[in-house]
């Protein structure tokens, strides 16, 4: 089999589902297109679920059970995916993030995950557990995925990472003074890397701030651009340049309006002085 991607079932519930689906399809001797014809999905969709680039929906799992004659096995296995703390659509984004040549991030109120220290990230997930938003198991899942995403930045060549933080990100204390101090230290270290640019969008930018929601833009090795956005229930990748290009333009405008990296580091250092 040419270019057959190996699967790691320990990676996530979605990866386990994908491996099980592939094994059942192989046992039938069907190609992805043939299974898709039986299910009413494209072969490309089957491939994306098998390789954990797209999560299985309840309708997908039920259709797979019917096509493969597996009762409700896949539907029951899919519940572990649907009950995950990882938003639908996010695994598809991560698959692109780990190969991006350039990343552009804008965040409000909280340090972006790729720049978080383990303690800061744990404080965020602990807060979500206490509110009942996620379970402890789901918190562990989030932290494990975050660690893998951060590790993927240490690739050669390193991706260029541009980050604009709303000032609220560095002023809002998360996890207490000690954890916040270490997090601000991490930002300063990040700004010193040769493949990064870190800027702060100050409060007094006012209406000139280009975005009111977090924005993530990726440039892939073939120079294609994609955007990722989240609602409370799901994440969505946008590849259509009719929609991506205005976001890229607005991001460049935001970079022009934000503080320089040197001035941004000075703001972070000033905030850091307020922590013991």
Automatic annotation (TrEMBL):
Protein name per UniProt: Transcriptional regulator
SUPFAM superfamilies attached to this UniProt entry? lambda repressor-like DNA-binding domains
- All residue ranges annotated as the HTH cro/C1-type domain in the record: 21-74
- Matches recorded under PROSITE patterns: HTH_CROC1 (PS50943)
